[in-house]
């Protein structure tokens, strides 16, 4: 599933093609993905300048001049392919939505498993949009301070791993990045979210930002279905220290002459990878 860094990478590619342009046509090739395609999608946004592309959590938002916004979520397997004018490639399989710009770029949403979604709403009513209304803090925004992270985690005793995945507290941190940030911060994934002290909170905050920025710089991770808008895979998966490495030696322990295998446990039906030596649970 594309996570925040992948979506941010895709957003940057789309920005360069769409901002300032208009759409000359929108092909809607089926009735629905996870939700039905909105009525009016193929007509309302046409011929209005696109004033801005932005991201909220893992949603891509395309704002049009006359107060309309298209929301795109890539679900499990969604990808966006950009073809520039003159690149006459045959259509791909599972192209469910195609945006054509006035200068003849073609942006295709390909989603074989169809867990993605596309919505259309009036920008001024964004606060009422169900997908956006209850989202927590953006970890790459200036509002994301150590204090803000502490406040988002203060009200729950649920395991820190699960609290960091809770989109109502903090958005866009998927399973990979949570595992990696907790490992680097030396925090056991089963610790109660409200049990972190100030030093731990500061470390965790720093590594969340550092890992997301590193992943964006590397072009996002590539897992299963995800590739860039130009079809190139990202490179961050080569940098994972614990994620997907069950049984391999912890790289930090290894530098200190210890051979400690990375463990995998399941939390809320999702795999967690951690080092039992670097990430001790003081409450056990
Ligand atoms: Zn270790």
TrEMBL record:
SMART domains: Fapy_DNA_glyco, H2TH. Its EC number is 3.2.2.23, 4.2.99.18. Residues 2-116 form the Formamidopyrimidine-DNA glycosylase catalytic domain. DNA binds at residues 94, 113. Keywords: DNA damage, DNA repair, DNA-binding, Glycosidase, Hydrolase, Lyase, Metal-binding, Multifunctional enzyme, Zinc, Zinc-finger. Binds 1 zinc ion per subunit. Its cofactor is Zn(2+). Residues 241-280 form the FPG-type domain. One of its GO terms (molecular function) is damaged DNA binding. The active site is at 2 (schiff-base intermediate with dna), 3 (proton donor), 58 (proton donor), 270 (proton donor). It catalyses: Hydrolysis of DNA containing ring-opened 7-methylguanine residues, releasing 2,6-diamino-4-hydroxy-5-(N-methyl)formamidopyrimidine; 2'-deoxyribonucleotide-(2'-deoxyribose 5'-phosphate)-2'-deoxyribonucleotide-DNA = a 3'-end 2'-deoxyribonucleotide-(2,3-dehydro-2,3-deoxyribose 5'-phosphate)-DNA + a 5'-end 5'-phospho-2'-deoxyribonucleoside-DNA + H(+). One of its GO terms (biological process) is base-excision repair. Belongs to the FPG family. Involved in base excision repair of DNA damaged by oxidation or by mutagenic agents. Acts as DNA glycosylase that recognizes and removes damaged bases. Has a preference for oxidized purines, such as 7,8-dihydro-8-oxoguanine (8-oxoG). Has AP (apurinic/apyrimidinic) lyase activity and introduces nicks in the DNA strand. Cleaves the DNA backbone by beta-delta elimination to generate a single-strand break at the site of the removed base with both 3'- and 5'-phosphates. Monomer. This is Formamidopyrimidine-DNA glycosylase. The lineage of its organism: Bacteria, Pseudomonadati, Pseudomonadota, Alphaproteobacteria, Acetobacterales.
